[in-house]
């Protein structure tokens, strides 16, 4: 499932995720499941044909990512694999960064990061020119709705409705089942 929140030049996308890491960190070889959230650039195209034509929308390159993941066999709310990626090289994320506060209280940590987008962009090394004041204000106003969406997706992952392997036909050496 994919949710998108678009503002002026940036937006947030959120999806459930099932992941088998092809190069896991020590002690993290089992599948992971949870929710992925990315701060992305959004691009609006021009309608073609008439004023009534649908407008093309592109969800473009990622600026920042947070993965609220845990061992797929762990009890709900474990968050033992929860991390973020504060930087990207184009489409490729930098290394996983584990933060104690993120694993302890993911939604509060996430709300704090999304409430201060200029500081978040500074932390990621993205130029402040990538966003407008309307982006920052719109995102700040949407934080409760975004964190509620993340919470509801996590609940559905924990209930076994989302964030699942495709068919269970055997152990995979790597897999990513998600929109993101």
TrEMBL record:
It comes from the Bacteria. This is Uncharacterized protein. It comes from Streptomyces nondiastaticus.
